[in-house]
Amino acid sequence: MKRTQSWIAKISAVVVAVFGLAMTTANAVEPVKAEFPVLVTSFGQAPDGNTITVLAKRIGAQLTYDTLATPEKVKEFKTVIVSIGVSLKGFGAAGVNLDTEIARAADILKVAKDDNIKVIGFHIGGEGRRDQMSDKIIETYAGDFDTLVVYKDGNQDGIFTKIAQEKNIPFIELEKLPQVSEVLKQILK
Amino acid sequence: MKLKWQSVAFTVTAALMCSVTSADAWVFKRYDQYPQRNAAVSQNGMVTATSPLATAAGIEIMKKGGNAFDAAVATALMLNATDPSMCGPMGAAFFTLFPAKEGKVVALDAGTMTPLGMTPDLYKTDGKEDRSKMLEGPLSWTIGGALAGYIAVLEKYGTMTFAQVSEPAIYYLENGFPMSQHDAEAWKNGFPDVPLLFPNLARVFAKDATWQEAGTVIKNPELAQTYRTVAKEGIDAFYKGSIAKEMVRYVQEQGGYWTMDDLAAYKVQWKEPLKMTFKDLDVYGVPPPASSMTWMQMLKMAEKVDWSKFQLHSAEYVNMMTEIERLAHADSYGWGGDPMFSKSTGDLTLTDKYIASQLERIVPGKAAPGKVQPGDPYKVNGVTTGEYTPPAPLPYKEVKLALRERFPEYPGQTTHINVIDKDGNAVSFTHTLGTYFGGHDLLGNTGVIANNAANWDDLEISHWTEAPSNLAMKPGARNRWTLCPGMMLKDGKVFMLVGGSGADSTQPAVFQAIMNRLQWNMNPQDAVSAPRHLYGDMRHYTAGTKLQVEPEIRDTNDVAQKLVDMGYDLVPASQTYRVGTPGYALMIWVDPETNTRFGGAETRINGHVSVY
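The joint structure predicted for all components is written out below.
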């Protein structure tokens, strides 16, 4: 077993060296592959969902972006990508607050579980999206995703790593932001 | 009926009470309640801008023997280099210029022009308006005139070559400049995801698609090379030659509609300035599609009001100022388009007859409900026939902006420069890319940032008037900008240079700063730093009763409650900050008695004054 792990580490090092990809996985669970159609929504109204949608389009994947998607809308899709992170003024612009966002998130996750819809969480806003309110959403729901993709800058305290390990969730940590596109290719191909 | 008589009585009384200025009127009063820095003072050259490196560049040029026009261009090029999110050679620029020997003010329009292939139907999804493509990316990019404007100023009034005035900027483009805390935070908070979405921009400004921290040294040697090419080959290199080819190649590769013909067709427009009087001053601005007409109309209305009956920053004062601002602003949306392509007028909005008709619409102590509508200066001034009935406000309804525009981090931005030299030559001009980093991309390997001027067009309907828009996008037309530089003369000599930034909060900011100087005797620094109010917000389409008042005003003398009682929808205190978005202003005032220049620069952003 130890020898196998050692080989995996060596191969990973070679991959990183050759391709410059310093993404790491915190556990041995494979990230889920998205099934289409795919919805992108936000838990917290930060604009990162738009980024994901645009980057996906550039690699040829057409996703539907709805920052305020309802549980009823979620039922129309086979996969939901959730961008996690609170923007206070985003709340104001959308006319929501933390309580309503948390309630919407709970409803969406319940529908997803009942209807066997895959949910992939992205936290790509870095440290800037690790305020108290973002953390409340992370602590409450990050354990309910089928895969977590996190930019390292937002995981300096290891909160996502811990949740992923405890819940045995496939976990991808990005060293650099441009790797979001690489991950989308993996998940959406 | 009762209200109308009240308005008429008020207007007549105000007109009778209007006082004539005298030399004593310019004595500064102390305003100790607002912590300020001192106004800068000089007998020679002075530059105000939003970067210390830029003001220093302007002064350096004047010390080397250049005049105000040489210095203005050097300052602009340095801002392009060191404040790149705000302005650039492919942006828009509007100038008021005073060559002292000629003794008259001239205006220059170096605004942005829609390429012939860009039409409103490109911005519809399923038949509905989709403004997201106007905000960023190749369909937001139009043909900019800023560099053509700088060079036109230099060629007509300057004494130095482009190679000489671009030297300071090229040094910093090649050797780097350290980012300020303001810029680091503004870039990061402005559009945090832009580096990820626009890798060619990130290549220069955001390593690893991450905006950099304060103190990081930024270089843009590609823009330095572009300036060197222009210095060697002339402006044609930029609009017709090798630089143009590279820009068009990149735009087309990204899915945009520029052609070499579009670039080659671009020309700056020398214009008669918009002119009016305020008491014994001659006031000048740039005609539409610049927005000087907006604060000029505000000021002309203010001239007719008896301000001795008001206490500065009282609820009654904020009410009167706000209602004046709302009326003038509405006209800007009605009549501020490109005169070659739409029914457009600045002059007719400044006549005594029209100003009187506008003042009649104000009910002191009340907020006009809903969306205040443009008046009809053509009818009031007898250009068109028929009885004039002032339009009633429309009910306010929220406008669905482009999705990304609704996020807080969207800050429309621009930057203004005032320059005066020892001989009394002067320039007041404003230049912009639209929003932070304009259209969010570098044009190939030229180091030139694209503007997003398309975002300032309407498509068909004006969200303000809910009628076919005079500001609608048209191929070949220039879009309305909120840029509104201005200049005042007294007895044929420069008296004030003024302008600002902050999208649609600019015009009220400039107006309030002028009032602070002329009516309340603040020195220029106090005038731009004193607390302000802003109705609506800095974006388009916000013509309702929303009112943001900075804390020093809001939290004293029960002002907040009084304004609510008048009918304003006051922005909650928790969302009102001293450094919010009440526009940004810069001012130089010249004492007519001593010829001493006093300068003030915005404290809410990185405003600086340099002198020698």
